[in-house]
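re: ur question from earlier - yeah i can do the single chain one, its not a big deal. heres the input i used so u can compare w yours
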Amino acid sequence: MESLLTAKLVDDLTHTSSNKSRESAGLGIANILAGCYGGIAGCAMIGQTIVNVEMGRARSRLSTVIAGLVLLGVLVLDGRLRQALARHQRALKYSRFQPGNKGGKQVARFPERKSKEVA
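and the output i got, formated as tokens:
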């Protein structure tokens, strides 16, 4: 429903017409494929669409492609940032300064793994 409402709003704002059957079919196919890959089904983002049309006077699919690429970039950078922070926290947790080190070099000490003895 939201996707069709968004299409109607864009049609009214741009004085154009869109193919609602094509919109529904595309959304249905995309939602089925998203479920096959473990994704979550969704529909149009009404806020982004209205901002694109009103502020940017977007009339092509380029604004949607750019929004998708920005979202993908944010997800990739967020994952890398989280990994870097986790590595940094682990390094801080297991590092200690050795008093005999000249130059104050930091040496990481990791706890030894205890082997399980087989009885």
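The beta strands are 95-97, 106-108. not sure if urs matches, ping me
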